[in-house]
Design goal:
Blueprint: H1 3-10, E1 16-21, E2 27-31, H2 32-42, E3 54-56, E4 63-69
Antiparallel strand pairs: 1-2, 1-4, 3-4
């Protein structure tokens, strides 16, 4: 799905972060609200920038990091 399609899927008012795998380079779009939800459980400081979030790659299981903030 292209960048514009992800924006349509999640909604035009949702900020999307693209996570990129450090090993296989798979790119995974993640909506802002999901990061807020996950971060609320693991972070005490709500001012932590979302670019520091890390997730697990659904393809190979390695670490993914924020590659870009994609607001098309």
């Amino acid at each position: 799905m292209g960048n514009n399609n992800w924006q349509k899927y999640f909604g035009s008012d949702v900020k999307i972060y693209i996570f990129k795998c450090t090993k296989c380079k798979f790119e995974d779009p993640v909506p802002d609200w999901l990061l807020d939800e996950c971060g609320g459980f693991s972070l005490l400081n709500k001012n932590t920038p979302k670019k520091t979030f890390k997730m697990t790659c659904p393809k190979c299981g390695r670490e993914t990091m924020v590659y870009k903030n994609d607001n098309v």
